[in-house]
Amino acid sequence: MVRHRGGGHKRRLRKVDFDRMEPGKHNVERIEHDPGRNAHIALITNVETGEKSYIVAAEGMRAGDEVQSFRTGLPPEIIKSMGHKMDLGMVATKTVWRGNCLPLALIPIGTVIFNIGLRRGKGAQMCRSAGTYGQITGYDSEDQRTAKYVHVRLQSGEVRSLPRQACATIGVASNVNFNKRMLGKAGRKRWLGIRPTVRGLAMNAADHPHGGGRGKSKGNVHPVSPWGVPAKSGSRTRPRSKVNRNVVVPRPRNQGRRRRDQSGSRK
After folding, report:
1. What pLDDT is stored for residue 248 in this prediction?
2. In this structure, are residues 57 and 42 in contact, taking their beta carbons and an 8 Å threshold?
3. Long-range contacts for 27-30 (Cβ within 8 Å, ≥24 apart)?
4. Average pLDDT for residues 48-68, to the nearest whole number?
């Protein structure tokens, strides 16, 4: 049971390929809307087998484009063109193109990526929403070839250390202007399956801890959920013992005036 959800227009599920394990050239047939996500999806066709599948489209991807996946290794023609020697610069010029899927170890520093995997052999788990992306900032060693982990900076400012075999797609997730949309009316929100949200202050005392009383007053009660769980004001829910060891640089958590005071721009 989830609050503020229900109804909405009937949807059909699209099976999106987040693994991208199938090698070879794929042609983009068309860009489609997926009601189950805010980014656009692309219908691609394998040139050799003719098999079709959906992937999350990169910003700027159009029908007729060609994309590939290099998760299973480099094709023989690329290795032959390098003289059977591993030249990372040559690999980048031939593989780092919008919509291509590669292991993080083959992506040069500064490249913008999305559909980022967290583990070896798994599919994409981060930066899958519209307009999201990460950026390769470095490695855990000076030599890119011997590095075991790759550092990726996210839009929040957090820097994560990910295995070199994890996957990523070149580019930015499509539909970057999704956050600027205007629904226009309450009915459109109901089509999306979003029901009205009633403030606890406007409820009766029996329905919410903030309810009841004369006038607009929550009775000097700290902000809580309907079940009494603290909310807002930076209340943390994650156990202190549960630390994400893949975070190299945590994202800044101070908000508003507190952040400005620390930076010295406002006293």
Report:
1. 93
2. yes
3. 27/64, 27/65, 27/66, 28/61, 28/62, 28/63, 28/64, 28/65, 28/66, 28/67, 28/99, 29/63, 30/63
4. 96
Contact 140, 151 (CB under 8 A): yes
Amino acid (one-letter) located at 208:
H
Mean pLDDT of 110-139: 95
Q: pTM higher than 0.85 for the full model? A: yes
How far is it, in rounded angstroms, from Cα 8 to Cα 28? 31
Location of structure tokens 């693994």: 19
Angle in degrees, CA 62, 68, 69, rounded to 5: 130
Phi, psi of 263 (to 5 degrees): -75, -15
Q: pLDDT digits over 219-253, tens only? A: 788 899 999 999 887 788 888 899 899 999 998 87
